[in-house]
Write a structure and sequence with these properties.
single chain; two-stranded antiparallel sheet
């Protein structure tokens, strides 16, 4: 009996030490990745990064446009949460955090509370893996998701949580590259959602919104190219450049409107209004849909 107990204890110790070894190995890989990528960072002003992030269309805005046009909800558009536990690098977790954030915005806009809980749980797992879980109020978000009367609060808190994570990563030395990846995932999934809709519902408003992403992609590539010496980033950049080739074919012109004076923070601010005209052909749109689908599915492992 004593030998059986001893054998069991030895087995448990062995399993425990193996698990600890694996965990430590993953932590070491992530630490080395943080160190190697951050070492090649080029100094870029905080104002420039904030402007780029602010200009990236919110997935909620994309979903709101779809909803306004009475485009029906489709769960087929969403990325599967099934493989999230298999992710073992910060690089993967960061862009997946963005992808699932875009999906959560889409679910929130269409009031799909039961499915939203699943994505909130997945996002919490990724946030904890990246050591930014303190900015993601899982308990409150889950409670709001199960109460359809609090959808406005759910959307506000979801966006606020992502802004908090983004700010923390950008301001933490050696971790700003994770912010770039999260924003990249957020953008490509938002673009994927609206391009999938465009295949079935070719509304001019949707085509125009897709065409406007030409400007955002240029800014996004400027950020990603800060890390182009890293192999993973370089591969990602090459994929996005194939998409950029298609966007460059789109013509965008601007018309200057009448300036407007508004009050902001107790001061009068002059705002120069302008409207954009996006010229995008069916052929250009189809090429963008195809390239977006390919890149997004590669990122989620399809």
């Amino acid at each position: 009996m004593f030998k059986k107990v001893l054998s069991l204890l030895l087995f448990l110790i062995l399993v425990s030490s193996c698990r600890t070894s694996v965990d430590n190995s993953e932590q070491n890989i992530n630490a080395m990745q943080d160190s190697s990528i951050s070492a090649m960072e080029i100094e870029v002003s905080e104002e420039a990064l904030v402007e780029i992030v602010a200009n990236i269309a919110s997935p909620i805005e994309m979903a709101a446009l779809m909803n306004r046009l009475s485009v029906p909800f489709s769960k087929e558009y969403l990325a599967s949460t099934g493989s999230v536990n298999d992710l073992n690098t910060n690089f993967q977790m960061a862009y997946k955090l963005g992808i699932f954030g875009a999906d959560l915005g889409y679910l929130n806009m269409y009031e799909k509370s039961s499915a939203a809980v699943e994505y909130i749980s997945t996002i919490k797992t990724l946030a904890d893996g990246l050591r930014v879980g303190q900015f993601f109020d899982y308990t409150t978000l889950k409670r709001l998701a199960t109460n359809n009367q609090n959808l406005d609060s759910l959307m506000f808190l979801s966006v606020h949580s992502y802004n908090e994570i983004d700010t923390y990563l950008r301001e933490t030395p050696g971790r700003s590259y994770l912010s770039s990846l999260m924003i990249t995932g957020l953008w490509i999934e938002g673009l994927y959602l609206i391009t999938q809709v465009a295949k079935e519902y070719p509304y001019p408003d949707i085509s125009e919104r897709i065409g406007e992403q030409k400007i955002i992609l240029t800014d996004l590539l400027d950020v990603l190219n800060l890390y182009k010496k890293n192999l993973s980033f370089n591969e990602l950049i090459q994929d996005f450049e194939t998409l950029n080739v298609e966007f460059k074919k789109i013509n965008i012109t601007y018309e200057i409107g009448e300036p407007e004076t508004i009050e902001k923070d107790g001061r009068l601010v002059l705002i120069q209004n302008e409207t954009s005209n996006v010229e995008i052909t069916d052929e250009q749109l189809n090429s963008i849909i195809e390239k977006t689908n390919k890149i997004r599915n590669k990122l989620i492992g399809l």
